[in-house]
Design a protein that fits this description.
This protein has 633 residues and is an alpha+beta fold. Helices cover 15% and strands 50% of the residues. It has helices at residues 11-45, 53-64, 111-115, 153-165, 374-381, 388-397, 437-441, 560-569; strands at 68-76, 83-92, 98-108, 121-125, 128-133, 139-141, 144-146, 170-182, 190-201, 205-213, 222-229, 244-255, 268-283, 286-302, 310-324, 327-339, 344-355, 364-370, 372-373, 400-411, 419-431, 447-458, 461-474, 483-498, 501-512, 516-525, 535-546, 570-585, 597-610, 628-631.
Length: 633
């Protein structure tokens, strides 16, 4: 009988069978080894863990870079791997003083953490941490120096400790105490109690949360939170100088004046309490910007030795800022405050951005704002460390009014920009408009009160629409009484600058007050060198005019004796259909010589009383000259 020959397995099948046989053997061997290790760990090491305390102290000291003392050491079985508990742990500083006390530490390990010579989780109760700044400016945290040169042994050791700390997956501290002392400041040590800290670390990400209670005079419990990322090619987990991310701080009640004792904030803060929430942006370990929501009362700070204190009864809203490599940006959103003088900022928004160029002419700035109270802004600015020219301008013009909207940009230094452009609208504008008679008499610059202005301008010229209702114009050097009351005034104004020459055109000028009502148009320009008073071409009409008030509108270039004669001679009368024209170089006003210019007034008058020899021109014993009455012409 012939039996069939059984088929022979293929080469691939043979290789797979051999691999499976060896894999199964290795798996069984690994299981046996794991069981043996588990038995040794839980049956031998865990009961005798206290005998390894000196070795653990030595290993922890090498890892952290500072001496470590452990009071007690125990372990308990917790599944596959045990949990280790340490008691009375202390980290010593360079002088052998305890810089960090840990009454109870519970460490959980895992296969991954064992391979990294660390822990899966560290839980600490009642930690006492000392943070101090020495006279040389170095900061020590639990005896670990932050910073230092690359060749500094202590700095290298502290870097190793930071690498170990920020490579642990999770660290939790509960009920701790942090004490801050500063050899550079005479302030007493600051202690934070009931400190809760959670730190979670990944390969490139780090998250933390700190909640602590300050002394009662500082305020209530606060919270700090942070999210950071390390560079992709970072080689040290503890190199926080390379981290980027964001910090968040929340203070439900804080006294900000306490900061003066411990932090140099660039100003002397003497008052301020309330709530603060702040977000801070961090780029490679440096603060690059931030935003703060504030609701404070009783704020008082002095920003310079020669400046008055900046006092605010209340301040609320959002304040932000960013710092760039070549400039900065500041902004406000819904910011409201009430000054000690009773001026209220209405809650406007503002964004200011400025970039620096290689030279001053390459500087660039932008401003966007709305709902800005100029009086409150000037009051604040007068207490800021600005240059003398800015303070003099604020004192001279004392601006008031509401900026409903403004957009501006400029290139070059702000004090003397080479190029600029601005557009916006201001209502209730008042500039250099003093209220008292003495201030009016001492005025040196033109001013306005009660104006609404829409403008669009640049370095070459611009245009504006002006409207004044129940206001006034201040024209020192033009009229003997410089303050001109205005019931209504409207005008469209354009101006151009060509080199030093400035030209201004005013059209649709309509005005009315108790003395007169009319309309006019004007064109004025300086000479080619920009010299004033310039050349004027003014014409207009009056629908009505009070003859007894003509004298107050005669410019001061007319001799005082003439102006006072008109004042004393015309004692009654009205005018209508008045036409006036002034044309020529104002150096020669009122153009006494033919060819110098034109000065002409024509009107219909009625009911005029004309004392052609007024009593002011007569001697006391002389009989008064008769006046002409009932004149029309």
């Amino acid at each position: 009988m012939n039996a069939e020959t059984p088929p022979r397995p293929t080469r691939l099948l043979t290789c797979v069978a051999v691999f499976a046989r060896w894999s199964l053997g290795l798996l069984l061997a690994f299981g046996v080894a794991l069981a043996a290790a588990w038995g040794v760990l839980h049956g031998w090491i865990v009961p005798r863990i206290g005998e390894y305390r000196p070795q653990l102290e030595s290993h922890a000291g090498r890892a952290l870079g500072v001496p470590v003392r452990i009071g007690s050491l125990s372990a308990r079985s917790n599944g596959l791997l045990p949990a280790i508990e340490l008691g009375d742990v202390a980290l010593l500083d360079a002088e052998g003083r305890p810089a960090l006390r840990l009454p109870r530490v519970v460490a959980t390990v895992s296969p991954r953490s064992l391979l990294k010579r660390g822990f899966e989780q560290l839980y600490i109760e009642g930690a006492e941490l000392d943070v101090r700044r020495e006279a040389d400016g170095r900061i020590f945290v639990a005896g670990l120096a932050l910073g230092g040169s690359d060749g500094d042994t202590a700095a290298a050791a502290s870097s190793e400790g930071a690498d170990w700390l920020f490579s642990q997956p999770e660290l939790a501290i509960r009920g701790g105490t942090v004490r801050w002392s500063d050899a550079l400041r005479p302030a007493p040590p600051l202690a934070l109690s009931d400190v809760d800290l959670v730190l979670r670390n990944g390969r490139w990400r780090h998250a933390l949360r700190l909640d602590a209670t300050p002394p009662p005079e500082w305020g209530d419990r606060f919270s700090l939170r942070g999210q950071f990322r390390a560079p992709l090619l970072a080689t040290h987990s503890g190199a926080w100088q390379q981290w980027s991310g964001q910090l968040f701080a929340e203070f439900t009640r804080v006294d900000v004046s306490r900061l003066n004792q411990y932090v140099d904030v660039g100003a002397r803060v003497t008052g301020g309490h309330g709530a603060v929430r702040a977000w801070a942006d961090v780029q490679r370990g440096q603060l690059s910007g931030g935003t703060a929501d504030v609701a404070l009362a009783g704020v008082s700070t002095t920003l310079g030795a020669q400046l008055q204190p900046l006092a605010l009864r209340t301040v609320a809203g959002r304040i932000g800022g960013r710092r760039f490599e070549d400039g900065f940006e500041v902004s406000t959103q819904g910011l409201q405050f009430l000054t000690a003088d009773g001026l209220r900022w209405p809650g406007g928004n503002l964004t200011l951005r400025h970039t620096h160029g290689d030279t001053a002419g390459q500087d660039h700035g932008e401003l966007q704002a709305d709902r800005l109270d100029l009086a409150a802004l000037a009051d604040i600015a007068s207490r800021l460390p600005l240059d003398d020219a800015a303070h003099r301008a604020l004192s001279t013009y004392a601006p008031e009014g509401m900026v409903e909207a403004v957009q501006a940009s400029w290139r070059g230094p702000l004090a003397a920009p080479q190029q600029y452009q601005a557009r916006g609208k201001v209502s209730g504008l008042a500039l250099a408009a003093p209220a008292g008679a003495a201030e009016v008499a001492a005025a040196r610059v033109p001013g306005v009160r009660g104006a609404t202005v829409e403008f669009d301008l640049n370095q070459a010229g611009g245009n504006a629409t002006l409207a004044v209702a129940d206001g006034a114009l201040l024209l020192p050097g033009v009229f003997e009484d410089p303050l001109v009351p205005v019931q209504q005034l409207g005008a469209a104004v354009r101006w151009q600058r060509d080199g030093q020459r400035l030209a201004v055109q005013a059209s649709d000028v309509r005005f009315a007050n108790a003395d007169a009502a009319g309309e006019a148009r004007a064109h004025w320009h300086t000479d080619d060198l920009g010299h004033a008073p310039g050349v004027l071409d003014l014409s207009g009409t009056l629908q009505r005019a009070d003859g007894t008030r003509v004298h107050r509108y005669l410019p001061q270039v007319i001799p005082q004796a003439t102006r006072h004669y008109v004042r004393d001679a015309v004692t009654a009368g009205t005018a209508s259909q008045v036409q006036f024209r002034v044309k020529g170089d104002l150096h020669h006003m009122p153009f006494e010589q033919p060819g110098q210019g034109e000065f002409r007034i024509a009107a219909k008058v009625r009911g005029v009383t004309y004392a052609y020899v007024p009593p002011s021109l007569q001697h006391t014993p002389q009989l008064p000259w008769p006046a002409l009455t009932g004149l029309e012409g």
